[in-house]
Amino acid sequence: MIDSHCHLDFEQFDPDRDQVLSRCKQIGIDKIIIPGTQVSRWQAQVDLCASDDSLFFALGIHPYFVDSANISDLTKLDEMLMLYKKQVVALGEIGLDFHLPEAGHQKQQDFFIAQLELADKYQIPVILHHRKSHNETLRLLKQKRFSQGGVVHAFSGSVQEAKAYIDMGFMLGVGGTITYSRAQKTRETFKQIPLEVLVLETDAPDMPLNGRQGQRNSPEFLGEIAQQLAELKEIGIGEVIKQTRANSVQLFGLT
Ligand SMILES: [Zn+2]
Fold first, then answer.
1. 140: alpha, beta or left, given left = phi > 0 and alpha = psi -120 to 50?
2. What's the 212 CA to ligand 1 centre distance in angstroms?
3. Of all helices (H) and strands (E), which one includes residue 148?
4. How far is the centre of ligand 1, averaged over its atoms, from the C-alpha of 138 (Å)?
């Protein structure tokens, strides 16, 4: 299994990162993608991934950190992408979070567009973060004629929204949301959308699964998301694991 989105570099894993990783390997999670969030963390991500064959990194400025980011961070991102172009698997996570104060929305859009342009320059997929922003995200992707594809991380939304991204070459990240029965719309969407465009993710240490609210999420729980997806789609978990793994390998060019 591949966890296509896990912040294993975050300090929540400082006390026991090695143990988490070895438990993951024991239960068959053999690759983990660590998305970028802000300039100050990029080098640590690169170093962490250099220490273990199963870890891969993406670099980018997360919408949460755009407010405190400078234009020079984009220059630094360009330099890092150049330096690590052989290793970097995607640009992200980037996107629009309209749950954040409106005063910062324009800057979020500017940084989103600038990072889409960098993904184009290096011809790498993007990891999209979204919150209350499907319309604007899709509008900007179309306006930029963005063609590198990527993944809509922790997708939640309607079948129609899902199809709009898929038509633009995106896959959808299936995370812990589907373990909550209140997420009816998203569960229904994943039931209908073909397995061929879905990848699994935990977003650990965030987004705890149902039953573990308030606790640290961990890539070790990825199998529970696979199980939920199998039940929703009324297929075997083996099929879910095999296909979503192949999707992640293809999307991020993993070897
Ligand atoms: Zn994330």
1. alpha
2. 18
3. none
4. 19
Whole-structure pTM value = 0.97
Each residue of 65-124: pLDDT tens digit?
999 999 999 999 999 999 999 999 999 999 999 999 999 999 999 999 999 999 999 999
1 contacts 29 by C-beta, under 8 angstroms: yes
Cβ–Cβ < 8 Å for 202, 6: yes
Residue bearing tokens 């073909």: 194
- The Å distance, Cα 194 to ligand 1 centre, comes to 23
The Cα–Cα gap between 17 and 30 comes to 15
C-alpha span between 250 and 170 (Å, rounded): 12
Burial environment of residue 193 by CB neighbours within 10 A (0 to 12, 13 to 18, 19 or more) = buried
- Give the domain ranges of the chain: 2-252
Residue 91 is which amino acid?
L
Residue in the structure block whose two tokens are 């790498």: 124
Does domain 2-252 sit in CATH 3.20.20.140?
A: yes
